[in-house]
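Bug report (template v2)

What were you trying to do?
Predict the complex of my protein with zinc ion.

What happened?
Run completed; filing so the output is reviewed.

Input:
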Amino acid sequence: MLVSPSLLAADFLSLRSEVEMLNKGADWIHLDVMDGTLVPNISFGFSVIDPLSSIAIKPLDTHLMVVHPERWFERLASDGVSYVSFHLEAAGRRTSANIARIHELGMKAGVAINPDISVNRLFPYIGKADFFLIMSVFAGFGGQKFIYSSLDRIASLRAEIERRGGQALIEVDGGVSADNAAALRQAGADVLVAGSSVFKSPDPLAAMETLRRA
Ligand code: DX5
Ligand code: ZN
């Protein structure tokens, strides 16, 4: 499985060394952008992403938790971001247009949903989106408890992707740790986002490796 550690749990006073550590052990680097409106928290924006993109070697995986995600696609592309996900709750009817625009800019497009949104609402985007981001906590904060019913949601999305012959990856975000990584793989997850379980570990590189091999 691929591991995309969430920088939200990093030590922001030592961001350079945190990114250098991720350059050694991560598959992707997950960046949580929050606007305080779609989600009840504010994180960071381009004042962090711009400099970080100049030292990151691993692909940047930007999770936009903002009400107007389409406003930021161009700037993300110019930062060399590889993966961009936005919330279906924010995009609504613009979802297909957003996916097309992200593709036009040469990036991979992901559609994210919170735990209270039915996975069936993602089905129309199978064959369009490159990946789906299933939140296994409510978006807004790191360090929350994994919601176990996410496993069934992932399994049903995986089944539908297979039924339609799609190629999309499933990324899971929230409360992911060595305790649930194997179950997530069995349910059909491809990419694990992990904040606390990587950065709060005494050995983050080993924690990433454990998740990858789960
Ligand atoms: C929450 C973010 C997550 C979060 C994950 O809104 O999307 O990426 O940082 O953190 P942990 O792994 O600590 O739940
Ligand atoms: Zn995230």
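What did the reviewer find?
The pocket of zinc ion (ligand 2) is lined by residues 6, 30, 32, 63, 173, 193 (CB under 6 Å). The chain is about 35% helix and 20% strand.
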